[in-house]
Amino acid sequence: MYFAALMRPTEDSYLHKGLRKQLVDGIRQKGITDEKVLTAINTIPRHFFLDSAFDKVAYEDRAFPIGEGQTISQPYTVAYQSQLLDVKPFEKILEIGTGSAYQATVLAELRATVYTIERQKNLFESNRAFSYLKKYPNIKFFYGDGYEGLPTYAPFDKIIITAAAPDIPQKLIDQLKVGGMMVIPVGSGDVQQMRRIVKQENGAVKEELFDNFSFVPMLGGKK
Ligand code: SAH
After folding, report:
1. Exposed/middle/buried for 128, CB within 10 Å: 0-12, 13-18, 19+?
2. For residue 69, what pLDDT is reported?
3. Cβ neighbourhood burial of 97 (10 Å; 0-12, 13-18, 19+)
C-alpha cells in the first residue's frame, strides 16, 4: 500500500462509536485504569487513521499497517504508554515516531502540547494532508531523526518513544527537564521491555521496568 493513495474514512457512525466503546472496555479489562486515557481512546475515531479497507477491524485491539512498512500501535500499547507517562494539561511532550499520529492525538486529548517527529517523509506528508488533525493545534509535526530530538524546543516535561530503541539515547535524556520522565521500549530483538526513567538533578536517571512489547525498530537518519 502506497501512502499517498490512502483513502481515509470520514464518517464516524454509531457502529464505529459502539465498537470503540467495546475496545475501551477490553483495554480496561487488560488492566488500564487511567480514566482520562480511556476517555481519550473513546473519543478518537481510530478508523480515520487507517485506510478505509480497515474500517471493519479498526477497533480490534491490534496493530495495523499504515504504509512504508510501519504500523499504527495496538490501542492497549498506546493506552499503556500514555498511562505510564502520567500526562498533565499543558505539559510539553516530545514523541519519537509519529507514524499514524494516533498516539500524538491521545496525548493531545490529554491536553498536552505535543512535539512529534517522524523520520519517513511519506508518513509526515500524509499527516499534513490529514484534515481531522486540524482539530489539534496542540500537536506540532516535525520531519527528522528522532535520535537528535528537538534541541530548539527542549527541555521537555516528558518524552515518549514509540519505536524499539536498542538503548536509551543520551541526546534525548539531555532534552528532558530535571524531574522529567521518559517512557521507552528498550531492546533490539523481537521483544522490548517498557521502561520509565526519571531524570535526576545530577543528570543521572532512575529507571523502572514494566511489561514486554513488540515495536518496529527506531532507525537512525531520515528517509
Ligand atoms: N506513534 C505511532 C506508532 C508508529 S510505529 C502511532 O501512533 O501510530 C513507529 C514509527 O516510528 C514509524 O512511523 C517509524 O517510521 C518511526 N521512527 C522509527 N525510527 C525513528 C526515528 N529515529 N525518528 C523518528 N521516527 C522514527
Report:
1. exposed
2. 86
3. buried
At residue 67, the pLDDT reads 86
Q: In this predicted structure, what is the pLDDT of residue 68?
A: 84
- Could you state, in order of their start, the residue ranges of all structural domains in the chain? 12-213
> Are the C-beta atoms of residues 146 and 130 closer than 8 Å to each other?
no
* Phi–psi pair at 124, nearest 5 degrees: -60, -45
Q: 127 C-alpha vs ligand 1 centroid, how far in Å?
A: 13
Cα separation, 92 vs 116, whole angstroms: 11
Tell me the mean pLDDT per 10 residues along the chain, length 223: 70 97 98 98 98 95 91 96 98 98 98 98 94 97 98 98 97 98 96 98 97 95 88
Task: Give residue for cell 528532558.
Answer: 176
Residue 222: predicted pLDDT:
87
**pLDDT at residue 199, as a whole number:** 98
**Do 168 and 148 touch, CB atoms closer than 8 A?**
no
Atom in ligand 1 nearest the alpha carbon of residue 120: 15
Radius of gyration, alpha carbons of the chain: 16
161 ligand 1 Cβ < 6 A: no
Ligand 1 atom 23 nearest Cα:
146
What is the CATH number assigned to the segment(s) 12-213? 3.40.50.150
Name residues whose C-beta falls within 8 Å of residue 127's C-beta, 6 or more positions apart in sequence.
Answer: 98, 100, 101, 118, 133, 141
Residues assigned a catalytic role: 73
